[in-house]
Specification:
The chain is α/β, with parallel strands linked by helices and 461 residues long. The chain is 39% helix and 13% strand. It folds into two domains: 175 residues, Aspartate Aminotransferase, domain 1 (Alpha-Beta Complex); 253 residues, Aspartate Aminotransferase, domain 2, CATH 3.40.640.10. The chain has 17 helices and 14 strands. It has a seven-stranded mixed beta sheet, with helices on both faces. Helix 2 packs antiparallel against helix 11, helix 3 runs parallel beside helix 11 and helix 14 packs across helix 16. The radius of gyration is 21 Å and the shape is globular. The protein binds ligand F0G. The site of ligand F0G has 15 residues, from helix 4 and helix 5.
């Protein structure tokens, strides 16, 4: 098969116009936005690659399902439909919806922290997961394999746990002080990198040995399952559903931001294998936090759309095209010499900006500078995942240095064409050719927490 790319398994029935702007206009928009793409109006963005979260296109079946929403406060028919689908996919017993991933986190994580000095260990915590671990009074430790930080070298499962390190941490901190092991699949923060089944099985063995519960942070579990099918021996002939079931069998709790592999614009899930005590605690706690346990902050119609989207996200021709789009963009950039996290992951191409702009020091945010230049070039909005996002040390107040300075080009699901991705590639390549002209940034206004969302910056001239 000598194919340039995998063509989409859908055709377009409705279009959303997007505006092409001039460079002069973009210079003005970016200045007004304080050199922070988060503050741009989406209207002024041509191709929006800020996130793949809630930004995908729904199918005709999902739009039709919206009409079936039962908006009852309690016992909604739409909830029971969702519950049935989620049980089928996971083989877990208890399902509670939440308004999005962090809604699920804020309900479940505090239930698992019953004393001081507890730790969660993950291959890599996503930001909001880390925040909720800390807000619950525990600490979040990451233990991903070293290959994850070597962006150039191929490894099929860069999201894997370093299992030796995992066991070492458990012994160091004491198994009784580990509140849970969180398998983040795919590993968003390091490039949407997958975790292998073999690795997850090893994690389960260690968890059993020390009697520690295992959670899946599975916003992109379907993409992870597809990577396993493609790259792991013994899974070539299994269906995505089978691989997903095998994955869920290795954990006790599944937390999901269903704005990703739920193919929905909003939604989250708390799914519990069989721990009825935990289920009852979550059911009680969710009422003041998210809403009654049969809606958890979602409208009945949202639950309908999600019930359909969850199944569509497991379809193989969908996943094949989805992951191929990401690969296509990654290949274009690599061919032009742009340094990226290789191989590309499931939802985004991560450009290594330490290598892209080595002349900009970490505390002048090289990846943010590249993001801004890409916006100026073609109206494409990427997002920084590096030292700008990481923030400051809570004690010393120094800027923390991120191990990776990344620009994430996040691909929304079923939304852009290969032609759009060519525009993105051309823009990034053009900026790369002129990379020595890039300058660092300094703060005009720095908020005390989660600064990357609302900070204002200016070029350091
Ligand atoms: N876990 C992972 C792995 C995520 O990527 C996200 C969100 C969440 C949890 C939280 O879910 O947004 O629905 O509350 N990731 C988005 C992103 C925001 O852009 O990567 P949420």
């Amino acid at each position: 098969m000598n194919k340039k790319y995998v063509a989409p398994p859908y055709r377009i029935k409705m279009v959303e116009p997007i505006k092409i702007t001039t460079r002069e206009e973009r210079e003005n928009y970016l200045r007004v936005a304080g050199y922070n793409p988060f503050s741009l109006r989406s209207e002024d963005v041509y191709i929006d690659l800020l996130t793949d979260s809630g930004t995908g296109a729904m199918s005709q079946y999902q739009w039709a399902a919206l009409m079936m929403g039962d908006e009852a406060y309690a016992g909604s028919r739409s909830f029971y439909k969702l519950e049935k689908v989620v049980k089928q996919i996971t083989n877990y017993q208890y399902v509670i919806p939440a308004h999005q991933g962090r809604g699920a986190e804020q309900v479940v994580l505090p239930q698992l922290v019953n004393k001081e000095g507890l730790y969660f260990i993950s291959n890599m915590h996503f930001d909001t997961t880390r925040a909720h671990v800390e807000m619950a009074g525990a600490r979040a430790l990451d233990c991903v394999i070293d290959e994850c930080f070597d962006t150039e070298t191929y490894h099929p499962f860069k999201g894997n746990f370093d299992v030796i390190q995992l066991e070492k941490i458990i012994n160091e901190k004491g198994p009784e002080n580990i509140a849970g092991i969180i398998m983040t699949i795919t590993n968003n923060s390091a490039g949407g990198q997958p975790v292998s089944m073999e690795n997850m099985k090893k994690v389960r063995v260690i968890a059993d040995k020390y009697k520690i519960r295992v959670l899946i942070d599975g916003a992109r579990y379907a993409e992870n399952s597809y990577f396993i099918k493609q790259r792991e021996k013994g899974y070539e002939n299994k269906s995505i559903e089978e691989i997903a079931l095998e994955t869920f069998a290795l954990a006790d709790i599944f937390l999901m931001s269903s704005k990703k592999d739920g193919l929905s614009n909003i939604g989250g899930l708390i799914v519990i294998k069989d721990d009825v005590d935990l289920y009852n605690k979550c059911r009680t706690y969710i009422v003041p936090m998210e809403g009654f346990p049969t809606y958890g902050g979602l409208a009945g119609r949202d639950m309908e759309a999600l019930s359909v989207g969850l199944l569509e996200a497991l379809e193989e021709d969908y996943l094949q095209h989805r992951l191929d789009q990401v690969r296509f963009l990654g290949d274009k950039l690599r061919e032009a010499g742009v340094p990226i996290q290789y191989p590309t992951g499931g939802h985004a191409v991560f450009v290594d900006c330490q290598k892209f702009a080595p002349h900009i020091p970490y505390d002048q945010f090289p990846a943010q500078s590249v993001c801004n230049a890409v916006y100026l070039e073609a109206g494409v909005r990427p997002v920084e995942i590096g030292s700008f996002l990481l923030g400051r040390d809570p004690d010393t107040k120094e800027n923390l240095k991120s191990p990776l300075e990344l620009m994430r080009l996040t691909i929304p699901r079923r939304t852009y064409t290969y032609a759009h991705l060519e525009v993105v590639a051309d823009a990034v390549i053009e900026v790369y050719k002129n990379r020595e002209k890039l300058v660092g940034l300094e703060f005009d206004y720095e908020p005390p927490v989660l600064r990357h969302f609302t900070a204002r910056l200016k070029p350091k001239l």
